[in-house]
């Protein structure tokens, strides 16, 4: 095996398993809640979309921290790397508390924005109101994981992710359906189980980072300038992430809009939730190589190795294509079996199958998109990622909404537009950038 492949596998292997474990929080919730009923599953779908949007916008806490810490590591400044990482953790605490304080009172309006009502809205509000309490530990988990990845440690996040998900699964089953004389508390139990698991996982990851900081003499108290710097560096990545989240929100809204006109809103939203959860699961799988790309690219550019960065990028793109082909084939082969796993509704598996086949066809493109995204994040090329993402989203949104409102596009057609317009558009813009030289900036300081 070539040295670049060994390096990619060393980082991507544990990252792959950890990233597979992360979406299992929602997959576990979907599997457990889905057996309560279709309305509960649809409510979870709406709440999960809001929650994933809030947390997803803050993914820069992991990505930006990984790149910054890796650059300092490449420049042989371990104390500075840990200090920078802890500033990211403190920033996560502040943002998380703010999101919870603002989000809980706005639970009703946030759910209503999706146009759902009745039982679906009630279940969505119940889940979301509780789940928002878990945003601060979720963001701390992101930041602490970013520190460890930047230090080229993807094993520790794996151990914590596995333990957290096992705890989440147990708590979900017990709190939702009950055990012994305890009857369970329904969908609220799913949210509480996730919150408890997230708090304990965040505490474990933070303890590892703090122990490393003490060992190397890095300050534990927040540095106001460092926190502000981390926030400024994260702005382009927030915009980049916002474009992705906006595309996912537009997709969900388009499905709900089209389904309302056909009178089968609960079934189509529930099907879309299952498909999007599975797509997110595979996205995290593909993102494992992107995590390796962030860490390797940041370290190499921090050490001034431009040619090595180029060679590794070419190799990682090959890995992206191959990974996408494998995940697409696996999704297509397992698609007929997945519906009954998540729901007792006899109609949903038939609706889900064609959607999953469309998603499977788009996996090779997604594999390269995630890898190149990771390379450019590791290089600190956030401004380009933000601009390119905004351009693609501005094309995708009106095309999709017009297709539904005017052309009557259904669930499968909306998914085809997501794969064919949004993801392919991202592929074109990322390949264009990677072929140039503007992103290859070297040195210990992360370029904005």
Terminal-residue CA separation: 35 Å
DSSP strand tally: 0
Report the C-alpha radius of gyration, rounded. 21 Å
Number of helices: 17
Q: Identify low-pLDDT runs.
A: none
The helix/strand class is mainly alpha
This entry's quaternary arrangement is: single chain
Gross morphology is globular
Q: Give the SSE order as H and E letters.
A: HHHHHHHHHHHHHHHHH
Mean pLDDT over the residues:
87
Summarize the biggest pleated sheet: none
Helix content: over 70%
Strand content: under 5%
Total domains = 1
List keywords for this structure.
single chain, mainly alpha
Outline the structure in words.
- This protein is an all-alpha fold.
- It has one domain (3-434).
- The protein has 17 helices and no strands.
- Helix 1 (3-21) packs parallel to helix 9 (155-177) and helix 4 runs parallel beside helix 12 (265-302).
- It is globular, with a radius of gyration of 21 Å.
């Amino acid at each position: 095996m070539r040295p670049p492949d060994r390096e990619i596998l060393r980082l991507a292997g544990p990252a792959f398993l950890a990233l597979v474990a992360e979406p299992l929080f929602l997959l576990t919730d979907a599997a457990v809640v889905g057996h309560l009923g279709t309305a509960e599953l649809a409510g979870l779908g709406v709440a999960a979309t809001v929650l994933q949007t809030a947390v997803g916008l803050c993914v820069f806490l992991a990505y930006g921290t990984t790149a910054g810490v890796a650059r300092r590591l490449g420049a042989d400044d371990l104390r500075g790397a840990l200090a920078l990482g802890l500033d990211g953790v403190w920033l996560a605490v502040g943002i998380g508390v703010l999101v919870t304080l603002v989000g809980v009172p706005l639970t009703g309006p946030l759910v209503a924005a999706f146009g759902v009502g009745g039982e679906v809205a009630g279940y969505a509000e119940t889940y979301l109101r509780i789940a928002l309490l878990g945003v601060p530990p979720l963001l701390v988990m992101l930041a602490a994981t970013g520190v460890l990845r930047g230090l080229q440690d993807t094993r520790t996040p794996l151990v914590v992710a596995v333990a957290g998900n096992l705890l989440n699964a147990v708590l979900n089953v017990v709190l939702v359906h009950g055990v012994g004389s305890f009857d369970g508390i329904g969908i609220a139990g799913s949210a509480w189980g996730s919150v408890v698991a997230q708090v304990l996982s965040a505490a474990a990851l933070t303890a590892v980072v703090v122990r490393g900081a003490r060992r190397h003499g890095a300050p534990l108290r927040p540095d106001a300038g460092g926190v502000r710097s981390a926030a400024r560096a994260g702005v382009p990545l927030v915009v980049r992430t916002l474009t992705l989240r906006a595309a996912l929100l537009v997709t969900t809204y388009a499905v709900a809009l089209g389904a309302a006109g056909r009178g089968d809103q609960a079934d189509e939203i529930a099907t879309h939730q299952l498909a999007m959860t599975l797509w997110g699961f595979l996205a995290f799988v593909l993102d494992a190589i992107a995590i390796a790309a962030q860490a390797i690219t940041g370290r190499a550019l921090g050490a001034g190795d431009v040619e090595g960065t180029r060679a590794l990028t070419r190799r990682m793109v090959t890995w992206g294509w191959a990974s996408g082909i494998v995940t697409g084939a696996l999704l297509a082969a397992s698609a007929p079996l997945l519906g009954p796993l998540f729901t007792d509704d006899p109609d949903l598996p038939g609706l889900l199958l064609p959607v999953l086949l469309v998603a499977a066809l788009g996996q090779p493109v997604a594999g390269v998109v995630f890898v190149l995204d990771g390379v450019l994040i590791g290089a600190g090329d956030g401004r380009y990622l933000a601009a390119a993402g905004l351009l693609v989203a501005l094309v995708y949104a009106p095309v999709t909404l017009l297709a539904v409102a005017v052309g009557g596009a259904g669930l499968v057609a909306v998914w085809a537009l997501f794969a064919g317009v949004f993801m392919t558009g991202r592929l074109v813009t990322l390949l264009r950038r990677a072929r140039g030289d503007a992103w290859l900036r070297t040195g210990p300081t992360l370029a904005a």
